[in-house]
């Protein structure tokens, strides 16, 4: 253990020999007296500023290794050799730590480990260095060795102070890519918002070498929209074209380059979003091309867009909408990202939502357990005492090798499929029957056809014990086994659920004939596919569901599997559409949203049985003793939601459509639910620089009282991520600013809530992913930071264990000054005493 003492200004120590000579030659100075000599020595030490530091022997070397996508080609082939050289040069008292990083840093538990499981779509060098600094022991000398290609997606400027304060030199070793012919999209310029039919420019700049022609292709929402050639001169070229959009919502533009040779393909594309505002405020998603709801709303002056292609709708189609109407559209026809986005659009952005009844709506449409279920003012699960028919359900589970893959939370895909099956059994009634098979290359009976009765818990325990064993799922074998049990049932309703990997579903065999046998017997088959509808076996699974007269669900996120099992079970066993005339009674709650009473029709032809949620208001209920809500409303966050439990179009809607108050009902509900435009006096500007989003909220004097009463709030939503609230920075009177970093390649929608109003925006995303942007200035920034901290570029790794200068320790000045303040009065006292004598 070394105990070093060093001086910040050692030049003052030269006074000691000077005082010694003075004491020898000039006796009257009194420096020969011990007390006065001690005071003189203390004075010199105060000027020299001694520092005490206690450090352990040896050096802690922190190797911070860039494992991002852009560094993979240049750095990873050399990483193993470099780490071996470092380990060979390590002394007996030295310690080696390795931090791998990309989007986040992670300290290796084993410095020799090669395993790496981090998101590689960002290079956060500053965060990794801060992580290493935070882990260092203050009792040991330390250095940092950064292994990198020199590129980072965040600035390094803020690190200088901390490195200097901790006395840690920053060394680096560059692994530069071999850049020959390299072309990249430097920028893509496009308006954030346009009016319907407004012409606008799409402008992009390309840089690189060598000069010459580079082909490009433009895509709109993934479909080819144009192509051409951009010519590079002196390393730069640009192209410009004009376009216009008529359909409301958001459109994604992407430009892709196709150079003949290119060193880094990752930066050959850029994308941006354009919002179309001021168009059709109401989006009507319906089964009916000539939906009478659209006719009524247009007669009342609403701008309505009718969409019958529910499967093609995306979350971005909600952009700029004042209200969404779902008219008897089943949940399985809507994309998962759309269902999720509706929640944010309603609760935060203030969009209105109205669901109308029918055989494919509410619980019968599979909305139980979906994100929309929490928004509705009615509960869709049928109470046990009101069920009329028992159900027999067979569940066939894929337990192939892919189901052993881990997911968030330490569970496997198989665990989540088991959990979904368990929830399905929980939702079935005591009089219902269930059978469960786990299938790989053969079926394995987990639960034979069993009436639940009081044995539900025992069956659930069995289901949760299923484990993946390898291979792929044999679909025909699984269907045949499930149907073999299901056809033994004597219940009035029979249904089979097939769960399979959409990328690993094998053995079609004679599935068409088997499904015909199943449907001819009055049973149905639905499919839950793990993956997306573009996976290799997705079309096969779609055909199974279609020929089985059932539904098809795809979900790439295994965490959503339990909810899909719930939705399907409720749709089959615990939902009810009553297709018989039912009397109706108006309620006082109608006047909470309407300006005048409504002369209600005597009865409806059919309705979806549901229950009013606490806090919701009923505008009309059934007069059949159930008092089931037929019209219900409530506020959900910033938005309003209405539920009409009887059909407004199609079958079982004759009485409603011939009713004189039909138009008044529809337009009142939509007018009440639709989001209002913000009054004048505010402006919201969104800007992007790289992957940093900047929002500027501007307001005039008329808004000052509102903002003084309630500060503005900003919320961001990214698919699959919880809603995030960000903090504002007040820039001055009438001006707030917010900055945040966007996730690479992931669009974000948001809203500013201010003064009781909402200002929605988005989607927005970084035009060019920062991870693939090559910026030579980043290497210069790294060199300057290393030089400032006393670090160097390490071409010879054997010198990496060089001990740094001692870090600044604890100054002894305070104690020296305190001792001097004690000695000086004593010296004065003795000096005066001697004079008196």
Structure overview:
By secondary structure, the chain is of the alpha/beta class. It has 18 helices and 45 strands. Strands 17-16-18-19-36-35-34-30-31 form a 9-stranded mixed beta sheet. Helix 2 (34-48) packs antiparallel against helix 18 (813-836), helix 8 packs antiparallel against helix 9 and helix 10 (475-486) packs parallel to helix 11. The protein is elongated and about 125 Å long. 42% of the residues are buried.
From the structure above, extract its key features.
837 residues; alpha/beta; 6-stranded mixed sheet; 18 helices; 31% strand
Quick overview:
By secondary structure, the chain is of the alpha/beta class. It contains 18 helices and 45 strands.
How many beta-strand runs?
45
Biggest sheet descriptor: 9 strands, mixed
The rounded distance between the terminal residues' Cα atoms is: 53 Å
Overall spatial form: elongated
* Low-pLDDT residue spans: 111-115
Radius of gyration, taken over Cα atoms and rounded to an integer in Å: 36 Å
Task: Give the helices and strands, then pairings.
Elements: E1 5-7, H1 15-25, H2 34-48, E2 50-52, E3 56-66, H3 72-88, E4 95-101, E5 105-107, H4 125-135, E6 140-148, H5 159-166, E7 170-174, E8 182-189, E9 193-194, E10 199-209, E11 212-220, E12 223-232, E13 236-244, E14 249-257, E15 269-276, E16 282-286, H6 292-299, E17 304-307, E18 323-327, H7 336-347, E19 352-356, E20 378-379, E21 391-398, H8 413-427, E22 433-439, E23 443-451, H9 456-463, E24 473-474, H10 475-486, E25 493-501, E26 505-506, H11 511-520, E27 524-530, H12 538-547, E28 552-555, H13 561-573, E29 577-578, E30 582-586, E31 603-604, E32 607-608, E33 611-612, E34 617-622, E35 629-636, E36 639-644, H14 654-657, H15 662-673, E37 682-689, E38 692-699, H16 704-709, E39 713-718, E40 724-726, E41 729-732, E42 735-741, E43 748-754, E44 757-764, H17 777-789, E45 810-811, H18 813-836
Parallel strand pairs: 3-4, 3-6, 6-7, 9-15, 16-17, 16-18, 18-19, 19-36, 21-22, 21-25, 24-26, 25-27, 27-28
Antiparallel strand pairs: 1-2, 2-45, 4-5, 8-10, 10-13, 11-12, 11-14, 14-15, 20-33, 22-23, 29-32, 30-31, 30-34, 34-35, 35-36, 37-38, 38-42, 39-40, 39-43, 41-42, 43-44
């Amino acid at each position: 253990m070394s105990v070093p003492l060093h001086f910040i200004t050692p030049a003052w120590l030269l006074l000691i020999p000077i005082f010694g000579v003075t004491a020898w030659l000039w006796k009257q100075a009194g420096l020969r007296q011990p007390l006065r000599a001690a005071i003189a020595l203390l004075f010199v030490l105060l000027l020299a500023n001694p520092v005490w530091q206690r450090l352990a022997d040896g050096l802690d070397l922190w190797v911070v290794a860039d494992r991002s996508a852009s560094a993979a080609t240049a750095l990873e082939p050399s990483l193993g050799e470099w780490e071996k050289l470092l380990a060979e040069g390590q002394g007996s008292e030295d310690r080696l730590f390795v931090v791998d990083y990309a989007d986040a840093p992670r300290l290796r538990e084993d410095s020799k480990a090669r395993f790496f499981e981090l998101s590689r779509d960002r290079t956060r060098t500053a965060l990794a260095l801060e992580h290493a600094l935070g882990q260092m022991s203050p009792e040991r000398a330390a250095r940092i060795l950064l292994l990198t290609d020199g590129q980072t997606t965040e600035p390094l400027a803020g690190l200088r102070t901390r490195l200097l304060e901790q006395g840690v030199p920053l060394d680096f070793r560059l692994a530069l890519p071999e850049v020959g012919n390299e072309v990249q999209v430097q920028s893509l310029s496009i308006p954030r918002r346009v009016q319907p039919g407004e012409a606008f420019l799409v402008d992009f700049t390309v840089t690189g070498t060598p000069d010459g022609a580079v082909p490009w292709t433009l895509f709109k929402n993934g479909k080819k929209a144009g192509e051409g050639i951009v010519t590079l001169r002196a390393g730069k070229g640009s192209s410009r074209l004009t376009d216009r959009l008529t359909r409301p919502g958001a459109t994604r533009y992407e430009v892709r380059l196709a150079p003949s040779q290119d060193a880094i393909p990752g930066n050959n594309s850029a994308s941006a979003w354009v919002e179309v505002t001021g168009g059709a405020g109401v989006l009507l998603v319906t089964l009916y091309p000539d939906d009478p709801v659209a006719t009524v709303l247009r007669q009342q002056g609403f701008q309505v867009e009718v969409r019958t292609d529910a499967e093609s709708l995306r979350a971005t189609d909600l952009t700029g909408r004042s209200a969404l109407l779902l008219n008897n559209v089943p949940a399985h026809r809507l994309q998962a990202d759309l269902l999720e986005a509706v929640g944010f659009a309603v609760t935060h952005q203030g969009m209105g939502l109205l669901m109308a009844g029918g055989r494919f709506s509410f619980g019968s449409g599979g909305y139980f357990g979906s994100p929309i279920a929490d928004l509705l003012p009615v509960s869709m699960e049928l109470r046990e005492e009101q069920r009329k028919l028992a159900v027999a359900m067979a569940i066939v589970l894929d337990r192939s090798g892919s189901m052993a893959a881990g997911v968030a939370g330490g569970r496997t895909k198989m665990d989540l499929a088991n959990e979904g099956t368990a929830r399905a059994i929980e939702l079935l009634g005591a009089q219902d029957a269930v059978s469960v098979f786990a299938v790989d290359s053969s079926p394995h009976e987990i639960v034979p056809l069993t009436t639940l009765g009081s044995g539900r818990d025992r069956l659930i325990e069995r289901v949760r014990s299923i484990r993946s064993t390898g291979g792929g799922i044999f679909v025909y074998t699984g269907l045949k086994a499930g149907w073999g049990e299901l056809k033994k049932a004597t219940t009035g309703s029979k249904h089979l659920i097939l769960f399979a990997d959409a990328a690993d579903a094998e053995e079609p065999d004679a599935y068409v004939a088997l499904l015909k046998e199943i449907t001819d017997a009055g049973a149905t088959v639905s499919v839950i596919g793990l993956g997306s509808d573009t996976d290799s076996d997705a079309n096969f699974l779609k055909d199974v569901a279609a020929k089985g007269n059932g539904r098809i669900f795809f979900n790439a996120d295994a965490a959503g599997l339990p909810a899909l099992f719930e939705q399907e079970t409720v749709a089959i066993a615990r939902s009810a559409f009553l297709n018989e005339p039912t009397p109706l009674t108006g309620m006082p709650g109608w006047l909470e949203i309407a300006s005048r009473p409504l002369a209600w029709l005597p009865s409806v032809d059919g309705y979806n049985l549901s229950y009013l949620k606490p806090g919701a208001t009923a505008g009309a209920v059934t007069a059949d003793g159930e008092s089931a809500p037929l019209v219900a409303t409530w506020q959900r966050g910033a938005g309003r939601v209405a539920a009409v439990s009887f059909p407004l179009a199609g079958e079982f809607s004759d009485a409603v459509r011939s009713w004189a108050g039909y138009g008044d009902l529809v337009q009142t509900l939509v007018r009440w639910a639709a989001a209002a435009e913000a009054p004048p006096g505010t402006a919201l500007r969104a800007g992007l620089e790289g992957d940093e989003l900047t929002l500027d909220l501007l307001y005039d004097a008329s808004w000052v009282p509102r903002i003084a009463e309630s500060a503005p709030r900003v919320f961001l939503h990214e698919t699959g991520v919880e809603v995030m609230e960000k903090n504002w920075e007040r820039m001055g009177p009438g001006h707030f600013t917010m900055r945040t970093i966007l996730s690479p390649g992931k669009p974000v929608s948001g809203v500013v809530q201010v003064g009781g109003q909402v200002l929605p925006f988005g989607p927005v995303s970084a035009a060019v992913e920062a991870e693939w942007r090559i910026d030579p200035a980043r290497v210069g920034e790294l060199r300057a930071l290393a030089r400032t901290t006393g670090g160097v570029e390490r071409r010879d790794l054997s010198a990496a264990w060089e001990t740094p200068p001692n870090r600044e320790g604890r100054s002894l000045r305070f104690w020296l000054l305190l001792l001097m303040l004690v000695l000086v009065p004593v010296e004065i006292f003795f000096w005066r005493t001697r004079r008196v004598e």
